[in-house]
Write a structure and sequence with these properties.
Radius of gyration: 20 Å
Number of domains: 3
Number of strands: 20
Strand order of the largest sheet: 6-7-12-10-11
Oligomer: single chain
CATH architecture of the largest domain: 2-Layer Sandwich
Order of helices and strands: EEHHEEEEEHHEEEEEHHEEHEEHEEEHE
Helix content: 25-40%
Strand content: 25-35%
CATH class of the largest domain: Alpha Beta
Shape: globular
CATH topology of the largest domain: Uridine Diphospho-n-acetylenolpyruvylglucosamine Reductase, domain 3
Distance between the termini: 25 Å
């Protein structure tokens, strides 16, 4: 393995902002991590793990060692009449992994089609879309302890999954390098179609016989309508989490804004679309210098070509301020800022 110096990170983040890392290395196999433990550069500098670069905003150069995850491989590890357990190494592209499962008619993650990023980042964020979260199908992950070199297994309950949240984003942040993720998928699909416009899209596609592949195709069409291609317009997908509020707070909000859309999570908690809140504050499609929000989805902050990470971060703060001022709701970032 090789450690390079002063490497540009522009090709490694979907926002397409310019930044450099003092040190850079690719992790191709577990042995690379074991070798790194003995390296003085590894021992003496801050470390950052990067996968698909689709959930990070660089506002400055990184003065440490960046570990680029390139661990590849997918395998079936167990199968019964009803389920299949599939293990994917963490450097695999998430969407390509979804398509791999879809082609085999393994159900459970078709609603998570076209989410950018790597397999290793999926449990860190507990990625979710259209009524499905990774925790619903997650069995376990293998992780390399960056302090001790030990390989540790984390079961579902060990990860403390929450809304776009896991133990790896707080108390264990930066401690582990995810090596692989194992999911338990269904051979007899139980589709989740009641979130958003999935049924409408399937109707528009004139689907006569529902399948895992058709649901995946519908999700892809919906996402492509709402979200820009990072290869054409720099972005990191949804920049903010959808806020979750109490029933009592929502009733006050609905009295003031009768048209507010919502999705009920349980008897006392309701999810409000952050995109709608941002749009009501006049941000949808607005351009500020070289940054702005996407014309079809206000939740997506974009780089029109030459924006810096600091400019995008300032726009995010301005959006948060205006939403708080109008709705008394504080938006939380989904994207990690470096």
């Amino acid at each position: 393995m090789t450690i390079k110096s002063n490497v540009s990170l522009k090709p490694f983040n979907t926002f397409g902002v310019s930044a450099t890392t003092k040190y850079f290395t690719r992790i191709e196999k577990i042995a690379d991590l074991q070798t790194l433990l003995k390296n003085p550069i590894y021992q003496q500098t801050q470390k950052l793990i990067l996968g698909g670069g689709s959930n990070v905003l660089f506002t400055q150069d990184f003065e440490g060692l960046l570990l680029y995850n390139n661990l590849k491989g997918i395998q079936k590890v167990k199968e019964t009449k009803e389920h299949v357990w599939v293990k994917a190494n963490s450097g695999e592209n998430w969407h390509q992994f979804v398509l791999y499962c879809v082609e085999k008619n393994w159900a459970g993650i078709e609603n998570l089609s076209l989410i950018p990023g790597s397999v290793g980042a999926a449990p860190l964020q507990n990625i979710g879309a259209y009524g499905v979260e990774l925790k619903d199908v997650f069995k376990e992950l293998e992780a390399f302890d960056l302090q001790t070199g030990e390989i540790v297994i984390f079961k579902n309950q060990d990860c403390r999954f929450g809304y776009r949240e896991s133990v790896f984003k707080n108390v264990l942040k930066g401690r582990y390098f995810v090596l692989s993720v194992t999911l338990k998928l269904d051979k007899n699909p139980q589709y989740k179609l009641d979130y958003g416009v999935i049924r409408q899209q399937l109707d528009a596609m004139n689907i006569s016989k529902l399948s895992v592949k058709e649901v995946s195709n519908a999700i892809c069409i919906i996402r492509q309508k709402k979200l820009p291609n990072p290869k054409k317009i720099g972005n990191a997908g949804s920049f903010f989490k959808n806020p979750v509020v109490s029933q009592s707070f929502f009733e006050k909000l609905q009295n003031q804004f009768p048209d507010v859309p919502f999705y009920r999570l349980d008897a006392d908690t309701i999810k409000v679309p952050a995109g709608w809140l941002i749009e009501q504050c006049g941000w949808k499609g607005k351009k500020v210098g070289q940054t702005g929000t996407y014309k079809n989805q206000a939740l997506v902050l974009v780089n029109h070509g030459a924006a810096t990470g600091k400019e995008v971060a300032k726009l995010a703060r301005d959006i948060q301020f205006s939403v708080t001022e109008k709705f008394n709701i504080k938006l939380e970032q989904e994207v990690n800022t470096i």
